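Quick one - inputs below.
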Amino acid sequence: MSTTLFRTIQPNHFTLLTTALLRTRTKTSRHISVRCQTSTTTQQPRTSAPKNHGSNKLDEILKDYEAVIGIETHVQLSTSTKAFCSCPNSYGSHPNTSICPVCMGLPGALPVLSSKVVDFGVRLGLALNCSLSLKSKFDRKQYFYPDLPKGYQISQFDVPIASGGYVDVDIPLEFGGGHRRFGITRVHMEEDAGKLLHSDAGDYSQAMIVDLNRAGVPLLEIVSEPDMRSGVEAAEYGSEMQRIVRYLGVSNGNMQEGSLRCDVNISIRPIGQAEFGTKVEIKNLNAFSAMSRAIDYEITRQALLYNQGQADKIVTETRLWDEGAQKTVTMRKKEGLADYRYFPEPDLPEVILTQEYVDSIRASLPELPEAKRRRYEAMGLGIQDVLFLANDVSVAEYFDEVIGKGADVKSAANWLMSDIAAYLKNEELSISDVKLTPHELAELIAAIKDETISGKIGKQILFELLAKGGTVQGMIKEKDLITDPVEIEKMIMKVISESPKQLEQYRSGKTKLQGFFAGQVMKMSKGKANPALLNKILLEKLNAKE
Amino acid sequence: MATRALLAVVTASPPRMIQIKASTFSSSLKFQRHITTIGRCFSSDTNPSVLQPPDVSRLAETARISLTPSEIEECGAKIRQVIDWFGQLQQVDVSSVEPAIRAEMEGGNLREDAPETFENRESIRASIPRFDEVYLKVPKVLNKE
Ligand SMILES: [Zn+2]
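Output:
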């Protein structure tokens, strides 16, 4: 397989700290209004695939074929309890300790829904521009698997809590840029299954082990419309889901811990064909960069089969992304649709929302990523700055606080994206860990702007404040010291030459007189000489042999 | 098992279904008031056609129950009776009734998100047949999709 295909995405692209690349590009592209440019593209019917992956081979393929991609995202909610019982919902607890008759499905046990799950469902539904069902219900999805103690999963089948929404994303410039809107089919509430693991013991092939702490933990499943057309678009959709759940505070969105899981459905079809091709599902995607590469791999694989007249070899199946081999491999073939025998959950009442409740949640929603990006853009920031700042909710909040103190917008963005980002990366810290408060960063920017301090001193002060805290005023006072040894030496020589008597006494053993000389020099410098430097040079001069 | 088999029958019987579930109480555990529910689910297919006779073998398979041929015969007749009864219920004219997504229950009973550790976890763990240290041990899964 072509390696260029896999070079298209920087592994760190979606993380906060990939600033070097972004910085260099910002300079050349600052004056391009990306949003205006590309919103037209969105309106036009797509005659050819978007060129936003940077691979020639894929470009070739996408002249003839169009990929159709839909994504199912499972979001584990950061509630204190499980969905239907009061067992603690805490990642990393001792295995099989967070269990009770309800989540273990013991006879007679009755589930009771946590109000927080409804709250989070409404929040996410509204954030994704969905219509809410004022009445929704739970159903049982039945299947047999060792991680599912009850023999069924409580989910929402035909009446989900939210449906018919959309999400807006910005494609990064290095992948072609542009603004896209992807449809959201539905959002529904359900419970997670336990965790099924391979045993480390020798009989690995014979047995598996289960931790049921996760069984019954609340999830929101977000189903997208099949609106994505490339790996980059899918990864950007996934990133936006992560940003949204983090902005809302409904989940930590951590992919490694499995708090955010994306399953991708993908098919390709010759351009112009109305029917969808055979759909393949890809699982085991634990990073957005992997998602992008897996999809581009899968597009190439399927197109190759088409081109070789072997389209019948594209079958309905679940494939896994193999990170080591950088390819997708068959996990299981699906023979017919699974029969989950859904039926209404008899132990749970319908979920009723009042319009008043919905309105109160709508009023309490934070500013969401898309609104933030558009606001930053309207402030005159370039799209790369905008994407960087809005990517991480804590960075965005920090930035908002800095500019809220009246700091120059562009300077604040520059400090955050360059020196502060580099510092965070080196120290492996997040913005919430730094000792530099937004207020002091605003002060620093103001001090440089009104030329109280030079940019060079400003940078020194920045790093000291990042590491140790303190105030810009305090640092400026400190920095006002005369630190030039030549200048200090001049003052010392002057004092010495004006005090021959004291010098003689000193040299004949009255070394306490050092304090007299130091006091004189300090007086001459109006208290601004660096004391350490002063004393060092003074001693040298006093003790110097003629 | 009887309940589960009944549910299996009901869910395998489109287009309109009425299901009844009466689960049992266990006095050793802490529960809320039990509610017997009659739920009604409307399918898009509104033709209340004659219900199909049960394929007991398939039902047993989907519910992961092993039945002997004589049990299949015995069950078949009983399930048939239940289905016929559903058939009778389906003849009730409900065209003037607004569909409900769920039967009326005393609603609004949501729970606060306050964690509470179940005291008698040991009795649950005691009923688990095999452990691998802290984990439950299960046979390797052979996918049956
Ligand atoms: Zn529980």
